[in-house]
Amino acid sequence: MVALACAAGSTLGLIGVGSLCAPVLAQVPSVSKPVAKDAVKAEPFAMAVRRVTESQYRNIIRDTFGPGVILNARFEPELREAGLQSIGNAQLSITTSGFEQYFSLAKSVAAQVVSEKKRAELVGCVPVDVKVKDDVCTRSVIERYGKILFRRPLTEAEIAGRLKIAADGTARIANYYEGLQLALASLLVDPEFLFRVEAAEPDPANAGQYRLDAYSKASRISFLLWDSAPDAELLQAAIAGTIHDDVMLKAQVARMTASPKLKDGAKAFFTDMLQFEHFDSLTKDGMTYPKYSQKVADSAREQTLLTLMDLLVEQNRDYRDIFTSNETFINRALAPVYKVPYLSRQEWARYTFPDDAERSGILTQVSFLSLFSHPAASSPTKRGIKVKEIFMCSPTPEPPADVDFSKVQALDKGTVRTRLLAHQENAGCSVCHRLSDPPGLALEHFDGIGQLRKLENGQLIDVSAEVDGTKFTGAKGLAQMLRADKRVPECLVRNVFAYGTGRPTTYRDEDYLIDETKAFAADGYRFKDLFANIATSAGFYKVAQPAGLGPAKLPTKIQTADARTSIPLEMVK
Amino acid sequence: MSFTFSRRSLLRGMVGGVAVSVGIPTLDMFLNDNGTAYADTGARLPIRFGTYFWGLGLTDTPTGSRWVPSTKGRGYEITPELMSLSPVKDKISVFSGFRVIGDGRPNAVHWSGHASILSGIAPLRAGQMDGPSFDTKVADAIGVGTRFKSIEVSANGKPVSYSTRSGKSFATPEPTPLALYTRLFGQGFQDPNSPNWQPDPSIMLNQSVLSGVTEQRRALLARVGKSDQMKLDQYFTSLREMENQLAIQLQRPAKAEACRIPTAPKNEPPKSASVDVINANSKAMARMLAMAMACDQTKVFNFVHTPGQSETYIAGDSKIYHQYTHDEPTDAKLGYQINTSKLAGLVMQALGDFLTEMDAIKEGGGTLLDNMAVLAFSDTGYAKIHSVENIPMIIAGGAGGKHKGGQHIAGNGDPVTRVSLTAQQLVGAPVGEFGSGAMKTARPITEVMG
Questions:
Q1: What is the ipTM for the molecules in this complex?
Q2: Shortest CB distance from A95 goes to which of B179, B187, B238?
Q3: What is the value of pTM for the model shown?
């Protein structure tokens, strides 16, 4: 059995193991593997195949070949499901045009790696004769990079295939580097690179249960904390099997949480949670908002990420401060939108809004305010729905198909509030609009790109609102309401867990989530601690066997409360 | 391995009775002998197929419609919202009164309509289809032999496509004229009329890059569960199509008399969802797509003008089209929603322009449009109430002489799948029936089939 060959190789060095290991599933060295009664039970199985995201792709290439490698391509759109793209992405594959892009990227990256400029640094060995194949040099390159790209050592067959591609190519064009380039490109279009294949194996500590295998575990940690593939040290812990040891696992997670790459992981998480993919197709009406430009949009996105990284990673502040802190960063493009002077010569400068400003927290930043608006108007409904969905895990039901809009007359005068209150007076509409609008109504002092205003059509805008019996006024009131709401930290814990595991939470996760939420509170709502706690918890690696594989059939019912579907923005009025 | 049938050998075979075993739609395609489907040289002009989608339907009113022609059959009069189609009136069939039958499934707003038209199944929920979109089957049947099996375009700035093989993963469309130009006429494009054609030696090297991956297919698929198999299967399908592209690039392309290589667009258009910008993009992209077909780069396309819940708007107006459809009251005097109908007309202008571009390219004895069939449709009928009844559908183009256009067909509540089936059979896809449940049909609309 292949698994035994791998186990036997576990004491060897990296290359040795790779050469002994057969396809992915069988690589887990498990010293204390019990003798299984049922041979089927002992077989590891693949439980999830997920396409690597654009940012993961970019980070892996950067970590593998250095930041100098340029990636010029359009990636396939991702899919948001149950509130997160990391869940939706589990549904996705690679379409024809997507494959064309990956193929052209693969050729371009490989060409850059073997280019005359970079080959000394990146190839790392010199062929005996540049016109002739050199298997030793090729093997060293393929093993070294293959291991990072595939997140595991390559099998001998995988290496041999690449040696052949390189040798054939070199023979055809009498150039060693062009042959090597082909072999590298073939790694970069391989499904084992482009998809994360998570595999499970019987848990030696708990008979009848399964756990993630060592390589899948290493990847899950590293994609959560760094949004990239495991580095050499983490991979070594997987090869040696020490990743299954709690003390060693904690040490790895502590090391990784202290790394500057934690910001990559945190940024990727918040980019997903805050639905920043909508920036890719965000448009504003130039006549209504002449200050708006692509530069403003890009800066707005960056501003929020900078603010979050500063508060949660650098300063290690209470997560709930993201709603109330008036500290942020601005740049030259954003300054006019915020109507503040920009005096710095730097690209970005710290800026603290005065205490009496209406702005505080990320909900009053241009990113949130412009993303969840119309091209030429604000939308309290969009904003309200997104506050509840993103920060409270409380989705608004989709509008009924046959809803009668005829009672809601268009009002060109007055404020948006007047029009929405009309919805609320109508029984058919009020069910949802009563829930969705209030947080958005509190943000109405900000127009469709987030500029401060007090008037709409000559009328003062009323920004009072009420959510679940709590009355408040304006953006600051909303921020205080969110800060005090228990659902906000609960929602973050749920999101981090679902994001890391790539699946929606189920009723079986509830006890776990309650415990993690308690720990989060006890730590003073520190985001970094939450990341680390989840990455070191057993629950994060628990495996439910997919139907049709192996003997144990666990229920996979999704709890109704969490079967949330993000409402496409276009349908929100 | 490839078989080449000449028209003559096929006809000879038929006389000998061989063709009895050939599927009827395929047979029909080859049978066509009316002079437009075949060029003077005897080489068969390819039949192309495309879908064209626009969001938010057309405007019905409590008492009538702004788009349904009042007379049926030939010589129907052009209605206000179809005005832009006047130049190609005789080459299109207008279908009204066809509907989605949900069999108890919910109306997923701005989704159930086109999901049903494309997959034949009322979807369980928004965002996914419960089967492949039929254009992929058409592409499998007729999209061979060209560099691209199909080309997807989105003219509204968002990367929207409803073409899917799995029902979950959707094609990634070209979102700008420049992106479309680069894909079609950038690297890898070979001028079919170049006198100095030489095979590019780097193509064989590219083939070797992919060969290693193909060999792993069986081993990888054996390891994963069923839903993951579907994902990986799609990956390998995409890989195979890349291999086909490379193989085609190694062959000397057949001459294409109508092919004129367009120039690259100079500037990216402004990023905007206003209807004037989308329409300008749409027109530029239609022209490029037409040339891609004339140059034999693809035979199948899927074009999205605006997505299901269209956010397009008239520049400077604070309300988007979607809001108007729902909020705007029916004008007491005129009897319809004024702004909604105005936007519908503007959106349809893009379809008129699109078809005019297709009709502008002379090919054989007729035009490119004569040698294609485009199924144009929307997500809803009367958008104000998210109706999935009376969804506007149009078949445009001669389909090589097979489509008898210039007609208005009233569906009387028949399922939309009848129109989908008709479109598939017009271009020779080997399909006998389409759809499921109450929308399952084996009855194409023979009135429009020649």
A1: 0.83
A2: B238
A3: 0.86
Q: What's the CATH number where B333 sits?
A: 3.40.720.10
From B166, B226, B315, residue closest to A287, measured CB to CB = B315
Q: CB pairs below 8 Å between A and B: how many?
A: 235
Q: State residue A562's pLDDT score.
A: 37
CB contact under 8 A, B242 and A79: no
A-chain residue closest to B149, CA distance: A96
pLDDT digits (tens, 9 = 90+) for A26-81: 333 333 334 334 434 446 678 888 999 999 999 999 999 999 999 988 888 888 98
| Of the partner residues A49, A81, A186, the one whose CB lies closest to the CB of residue B224 | A49
Establish if B59 belongs to a structural domain. Answer: yes
Position B443 in a domain:
yes
Residue of A nearest to B317 (CA): A376
Q: For residue range A250-287, what is the model confidence (pLDDT) as tens digits?
A: 999 999 999 999 999 999 999 999 999 999 889 999 99
Domains contained in chain B, number: 1
The overall average pLDDT reported for chain B is 88
Mean pLDDT in chain A? Answer: 86
Contacts of B152 in chain A (CB under 8 A): 97
Residue of A80, A97, A404 for testing the chain B interface, max B β-carbons within 10 Å: A97
Residue B283 lies in a domain: yes
Q: Please list every residue in chain A whose beta carbon sits closer than 8 Å to the beta carbon of residue B126.
A: 398, 565, 568
Residues B146-176: tens digit of each pLDDT: 999 999 999 998 999 999 998 988 999 999 9
Q: Given this model, what pLDDT does residue A413 score?
A: 59
Contact yes or no for B171 and A409 at CB 8 A: no
Let me know if residue B350 belongs to a domain: yes
Chain B nearest CA to A255, separation (Å)? 33
Q: Would you place residue B227 in the very low, low, confident or very high pLDDT band (cuts 50, 70, 90)?
A: confident
Q: Which of A77, A186, A568 sits opposite B212 (nearest CB)?
A: A186
Question: What per-residue confidence (pLDDT) applies to A403?
Answer: 63
Average pLDDT over residues B65-80: 95
Which tens digits make up the pLDDT trace of A456-473? Answer: 888 899 999 998 889 999
Residues of A in contact with B224 (CB under 8 A): 46, 49, 197
Which domain covers residue B94, as residue numbers? Answer: 47-180+271-448
Q: SS3 letters for chain B?
A: CCCCCCHHHHHHHHHCCHHHHCCHHHHHHHHCCCCCCECCCCCECCCEEEEEEECCCCCECCCCECCCCCCCEECCCCCHHHHHHHHHHHHEEEEECCECCCCCCCCCCCCHHHHHHHHCCCCCCCCCCCCCCHHHHHHHHHCCCCCECCEEEECCCCCCCCCECCCCCECCCECCHHHHHHHHHCCCCCCCCCCCCCCCHHHHHHHHHHHHHHCCHHHHHHHCCHHHHHHHHHHHHHHHHHHHHHHHHCCCCCCCCCCCCCCCCCCCCCCCCEHHHHHHHHHHHHHHHHHHHHCCCECEEEEECCCCCCCCECCCCCCCHHHHHHHCCCCCCCCCCHHHHHHHHHHHHHHHHHHHHHHCCEECCEECHHHEEEEEEECCCCHHHCCCCCCCEEEECCHHHCECCCEEEECCCCECHHHHHHHHHHCCCCCCCECCHHHCECCCCHHHEC
